[in-house]
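PROTOCOL LOG
Step 1. Enter all chains and additional molecules of the complex.
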Amino acid sequence: MAASVAKSRGLAGLLVQAALVVIVLALPLALDPYGYPLFVATQLGVYVIAAIGLNLLAGYAGQVSLGHGAFIAIGAYATALLTVDQGWSFWLAALAGVALSALMGVLMALPSFRLSTWYFAFITLAFAQVFEKMIVEWRGLTRGFAGVVGVQPPSVFGHVLEPAGVYWLVAIIAIIGFWLVNNLVHSRFGRGFVAVRDAPAAAQAAGASPARLKLLAFVIAACFAGVAGAFFAVQKTVVTPDDFTAEFSIFFLLTVVLGGLGTRWGPVVGALVFFLVPELLTGLESWRMMVYGAALLALMLFAPHGLVGAARSLFDRLRPKQAGQTTQPAETVQPQGAHVERPAISGLALEVKDLRKSFGGVVALGGVDLSVAPGTCAAIVGPNGSGKTTLLNVVGAYYRRDAGAVLLGGRETKGLSPQQIAGEGLGRTFQTPRLLGELTVLDNVLLGAFRRERASLPGTMLRLPGAMAEAERLRAEAMELLAFVGVADRADDLASETPHGHQRLVEIARALMGGARLIMLDEPAAGLSMTELDRLEQLIRRILALGATVVIVEHHLDLVASIASHVTVLDRGVVLASGAPQAVFADAAVMAAYMGERALNEQASDQLSDEAAGEVARPRPVPAKGA
Amino acid sequence: MDIDILARGLVAGSLYALVAVSFNILYRPTNVFNFAQGELVMLGAMVFASLATVLGWPWYAALIVTLLGVGLLTLLIDVVAVAPVLARSQHGTGWVITTLAASLIIANGVNRIWGPDPIVVRPPAPLTTDTFSLAGMTVSAYQIFLVLLTIILVLAIEQVYRTRQGKAVLAVAEDREAALLRGVNPLRLSHWSFFLGGAFAGLTGVLAAPVLYASTGLGPALLLKGFAAAAVGSIGNNRGALIAGYLIGVTEALGAALLSPGYQEAVVFLLVLCVLLVWPHGLFGRPFARTV
Amino acid sequence: MTMASNAGQAGELLLSVEQVDVGYGHVGVLEGVSLSVRRGSIAALVGRNGAGKSTLLRAISGLLTPSRGQIVFNGRAISRDKPHAIVGAGLLHVAEGRRLFRSQSVDDNLELGVYGLKMDAAGYQRRLARVFELFPVLEEKRRLPAGALSGGQQQMLAIGQAMMREPVLLMLDEPSLGLSPLLVDQVFAAIMALQQAGTTILLVEQLVERALEIASEAWVLQNGRMIASGPAAQIAASEELRAAYMAAH
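Step 2. Run joint prediction.
Step 3. Record the structure below.
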């Protein structure tokens, strides 16, 4: 029932979109071909093309760039100069413009790897200002303030295009661009972008490189802007520096924010409202920037997801709750997933030798040894602050080790990035689940397959059969994994609306999706109810039964005693004891350490804390009661 | 090498350092970087210029009104554009856009009120902008005053952070939750910081006016060079901002002398970019190590 | 001059948490939790890691707001109050993990303990002397940044910081964490001294046995629900409750 409702809504959506395309293409027939409205419509199309690119970069990938105008400028100037000065055809010149823009995109991406978001925003703003000045400075090339005059419209098969022809060209490119980016957003790349924006560690755990994804987003955005710039030159016929001030870049960001950052229709709506409204109120030209500023402010305060976002939440609130959408209580027992058949996994061994890591002056790991046989479950326990999570982070290369060896499946992982290690078969979950809240549970699991998906970029953007078939296969596998972990019925729910216990399971499914042969679980039992704990234990047993290796960091010693074949006790960065659970837990010294008192043996007392200095360990006196 | 470059660099650098300090004052309790800061400095210059030069007020009266006015406007920015966004989410970057919006509104507003023509501001006697020779450099009394006053102001601001309220601000910056548990009201501190930082920005504008001319186009360049000085000097570190300011000022002067003046911005930009790529937290590192 | 409205009958209810639900976003952590603390007593809150003890303290001190139920302190409903207002009312929370201002000196940290209070120099010195009397090592290291202190010394500083304010109710979240036995003794001695001087204490502790020794009442939290409460000796003696709060058997 729910499926057919979704289908019919999908069909209705398609029809509406088809109708829009028809209207857009039919527009010149209704308007005066040499009139101003058609010119405006073409201009709008140009801005939509650029906005789509910026929306991908700033909205989906989270890279707020205040210098986008520069990319458009490069496209415009390249096209103008090459056609006017060198007599190139529009098409070649535009292509050159796009290539140059793309190159600039690569350069702009580099700082984004190192700098946090708002530093990066400032750098791009600075760049926009410098660029503005440089256009004027290099007047030998750009003709300075006089500008490049006399840009001709493109010709197709020898015929110079009329304004209507230019409009159709722009409109078709805009529609195709919209379609291409939409396909991209709904693919592994789109998931990767959102991961880079919202949970970079999760991206790395899934085998995705945040730097590469940022680079990709920049290049694509730059290409779109380059194309827009080429047509900008044609429309204006004169290209001057005044067209590309820093204000212009800010205007662009506004467009995308107004429409709705990271939404599909945001760039279109934003360009529409932002462009048309001033055109209709020409008397307010001089107030323009002030109105834009006030609009931006109001928007961020009251509708941070832009017009599209506001419309969507309004729509959601008005729509009656459909059956199956009410959030189920977490306690509801889900099908156990024991019936789901999964292929065997060849578990990896893990060797850690004398691992050391300090932060500032604080020693987090002071020489840790760990040995995990393939296909077994090893547990790491210890009080808060003993270094358990740091150990996982160093093994996964999220922190760089100071010294020591880490061998995964017999191979040293030194120098590898977290995503490369993930590619070697290491999966993990996080202490606080790092899911992409805005995506569905199914999409979150699919993120895990990032490295495994072979479909190329063009294949994905063009929805080629090979890419589509692979996506289908992976979707089916993801559903299977969701069933395996026991949350199949929540596949289409937003991750942000999933209860805590289920989020943990989704993370595990994501790790399995990545083909993990050794899974590190960071305190998976924290915050779980009795039933959920039970289910977790069963799941871990099923994973072990498949042959994978499991390394679990935990406080719940019952769970550990039940499923682990080997336990290592950490205390303040060193191994206090290790062995079979029964032996370790029976050791009084170990339990004393866990309960917060310092063990009395020498190994532990070698430790760094200067509270040892001058304080002799002696048997504790029995405290007097009360007075 | 013309030693005047050094003089010019130090003077410009002092102004950039002052802008950076005003940034730092706002940043400490909020982790917010105000994109409207450049326009606030410019506003300070314009208001003072109008009161002192055009209306003929005595300089101390014009100064006080300017400081109060810009301080209050900055407080307004906090109340309207920053605090609501932070209340929604401590870690988002929505404030980038709202402070950007504020800068557009202020810039446009100022332009409409004052128009683009610069106003000449003469500093009160005996500080003149007449130049004389000192140790081979061509300097003016005002320039010397500016450089010295900047150092004094930086040291003075440091003293503010030695007071109990100042320590509370540092506490909020270091661990907001722990500060909450000690009875600190971060909202009140951020309001005060915005007011103080705004007044400081206004003061910077007043000090800059005789040197840069009070005009409405000052904002963007000061915003970025002020940010550069703050970032290179490590955000929150006022002495670092001072040194970074000098660095940027001198580089800019060198760039203008060796290449054409149009290139000086590009040179500074490249310098700042290179420094930040190597030391993303500025030359002086982070003030305290993060606990894992 | 006595501290904030501590005039009240010993034995009456100072803090009353009534049927609260607390969560983070969509994730519920505590459900229908109730707890009460009598004036002048030491109450122990025990339970395993992940049971929600810290969450409960955070709801009381105002860092979290309960979605249901209410919290009454000294006759005043505080469930919707901001943290600084709750501190002003005399309820202090020393969070786990020794949340100090590490870049500032011991002296500065202690000074921040009285942030917002008006007092003269003599009054301030008197309080400072009390803290140094209980924790002499802090006086030795008073000019050092708090980050340079050892874990145990930092814990003492955290308690000292709270003591400066002379709270009516002091909530301590796992003060013994990571401390050597000797230091644990000192900390527990300090807690008892504070109680004797009139401060009411709510203690969350990993060292359950020691906590139950000094407390008069105990509350047991498990998986977000309060499953038992009663005189500390009774709770300590109960075998079945042991399973609920002990980390291992």
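Step 4. Note key features.
Residues 439-514 of chain A form one domain.
Residues 2-30 of chain A form the longest helix (29 residues).
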